[in-house]
Design a protein that fits this description.
51 residues; 0% strand
Length: 51
């Protein structure tokens, strides 16, 4: 479903998140980057908490 380059970038991002070497603020920055970099994550959220 993903091309090899996109799969590699996603794997690297996930590996960064599960490592113990990052502060929470750094992990949140990785997550924000992932939402901009990976189109399948950038889907709209609809609930009373998120607009």
């Amino acid at each position: 479903y993903f091309d090899d380059a996109e799969q590699k970038r996603f794997d690297e991002d996930v590996n960064d998140l599960v490592g113990d070497h990052m502060l929470v603020s750094q992990q949140l920055a990785v997550i924000a980057r992932m939402y901009h970099s990976h189109a399948f994550l950038a889907q709209g959220v609809s609930s009373k908490w998120f607009h």
